[in-house]
Amino acid sequence: MTTVHRKAHFNAAHRLFRPDWDDAKNAEIFGKCSNPNYHGHNYELVVHVTGDIDPETGFVIDMKILKQIIYEEVEVAFDHKNLNVEVAEFRNLNPTAENIAKVIWHKIRKKLDRALTLSVTLYETPRNFVTYTEN
Amino acid sequence: MTTVHRKAHFNAAHRLFRPDWDDAKNAEIFGKCSNPNYHGHNYELVVHVTGDIDPETGFVIDMKILKQIIYEEVEVAFDHKNLNVEVAEFRNLNPTAENIAKVIWHKIRKKLDRALTLSVTLYETPRNFVTYTEN
Amino acid sequence: MTTVHRKAHFNAAHRLFRPDWDDAKNAEIFGKCSNPNYHGHNYELVVHVTGDIDPETGFVIDMKILKQIIYEEVEVAFDHKNLNVEVAEFRNLNPTAENIAKVIWHKIRKKLDRALTLSVTLYETPRNFVTYTEN
Amino acid sequence: MTTVHRKAHFNAAHRLFRPDWDDAKNAEIFGKCSNPNYHGHNYELVVHVTGDIDPETGFVIDMKILKQIIYEEVEVAFDHKNLNVEVAEFRNLNPTAENIAKVIWHKIRKKLDRALTLSVTLYETPRNFVTYTEN
Amino acid sequence: MTTVHRKAHFNAAHRLFRPDWDDAKNAEIFGKCSNPNYHGHNYELVVHVTGDIDPETGFVIDMKILKQIIYEEVEVAFDHKNLNVEVAEFRNLNPTAENIAKVIWHKIRKKLDRALTLSVTLYETPRNFVTYTEN
Amino acid sequence: MTTVHRKAHFNAAHRLFRPDWDDAKNAEIFGKCSNPNYHGHNYELVVHVTGDIDPETGFVIDMKILKQIIYEEVEVAFDHKNLNVEVAEFRNLNPTAENIAKVIWHKIRKKLDRALTLSVTLYETPRNFVTYTEN
Asked: Tell me, what's the ipTM?
């Protein structure tokens, strides 16, 4: 079993917030992370792809291809953006690290060969991070 | 499957030592790690909690709660302490990284909801670390 | 000559923006950093304080005191905030890393003994950072 | 379940290259990684060993022994070497990160007690890394 | 006084070697770093530029411009190259970390405004690094 | 001006403590850092040596020599030791980070050529560190 890992990053603003709750309820549950004026992070992403080593190339997946998928699906979509306001997936989904990791997993999954297994780790800060895997 | 990870740290003194062995036997087996005058480390801890994403909050566990559990169970108990002398769990248990990780796992486990799965990684140094999981 | 260094961090949203320019001009000069909906960073701060070692304590400055100054002047003021909207110093000052470092320098400087020299380093990302010193 | 992790490193030159392809075909598939004059990396290695904690010592494996195995099997063999030219395993095996990890896994595996489980992670750069496990 | 710092990296092969010495003399003085088959590194570069904060933009230098200068002068020239064989500056100059830093300093210096001061730090490994400044 | 930097590390126990004060006074001034049973750290050391690049070797100082000086003067003397009890320099000198850095500076200084300038940075934790330079 061989897993290749590729790191990437993006900077974004967000707030923890449910649009079906008012600001008072959001503040009560999410604390300062619910600041209506937003705060932000340098998100670090590690994408883990598991599969067999291709005996011809010695690769599980060509890193140039994986890097391009991450660039298109994550960096172009999220970098220097306000996640709540500008990213369609979070219009009705609270952009917690868990949910951002889940959204990224689905965006990358649909671009990968079905023989490969995918997992993603998202660092919201160096001290708080999340790993998401779906089968 | 979603895992949230939370980092914490504490500084402590210890020596590798079995009280049922004399210092000569401890030195033979544990080398300079058995120095009777102690040495110490900046321990880095990563706590991994696996569960479902709560659709209401978008959290596996509220990080404020996990941070508080780690603070009470680990930081208050171990930080700036001599593990052999001042921490009850190591009176009769050699404070290797493996055993410290195991003790921490049990202390945090008893504070967590049974639906959540727990694993802990303890860095004794940046080059030596241990991951402990029990079912 | 002895310098003590203390690290701290805060998360914030910002945009590069001059209120006396319109959005088009801001976008032309500041690119995607000028996104009107903001983006954000995990800012890492290192505060450098230079002075003599007090022969009584062995300290240049008591780290507990320096930590408290940083907490009050920087973390309380900037953490989980929108710098442009919520921090008075940036109402009319573009929150570039250079200017944020300068503002932090002045906030900490006024709390330190005049015999001590101060410098601050602010990481906007792990790849972009700034050091500010004034005499 | 307890896993101990040990970090090590080595510097080496390599090129991605199949001797049964000409330079043009190698360049087409492997890009600049196939430069005939070689390039190189600071490889970081993490060796993961899983087993039971020995109740006598508190160790899964004595780190001094694991460190010595890594030194003999990996550092002596690979450090400051040209992997394609000087390391027998890569005479007919393309030294991708995947294949280097696989070779390391086999070299360490044969020195470990069968009761222990082994996995290795090899960082080719801080952004590209590979984990290899075989049962 | 304000300094902006920008990090970059490149991978390269090299050997410590004077072409006017034979391999035996090179090996005697430079040890395993003189391996005729080369070894390599992930070089990390930090470029430090000191100057005044432009009151109009809030920048010492536009990071997009500095990033582009580093890309053209260092990354294009050195990345995935064999420094001894493929980089003209090292045909007759031993590619020690000191000399590589000096060459980089001169390449970047000639592209910068004379009002700015330049210094560069080059990491050959995380444990060995060099800072070069010329007036 | 060229500075070479070399990283090293050691693990040690210490307590902040003046033998001419009683434990109560030590506790009042030094807080939990004065715990009579000691605590400890993974100290990281960076040694900075400034001088001219030798045109024959391309070195400011041969890193193998600098590494050996650090090993003999710092690692052998401090690693896995109790600084207060086992290191002569701290019998009557409080082992604050400032004072440890000063002691290390003097130990390395006496082994270096007078044409070289020396500075040392000592990390007590990743968040607290000290730089010491004397002329």
From this structure: 0.95
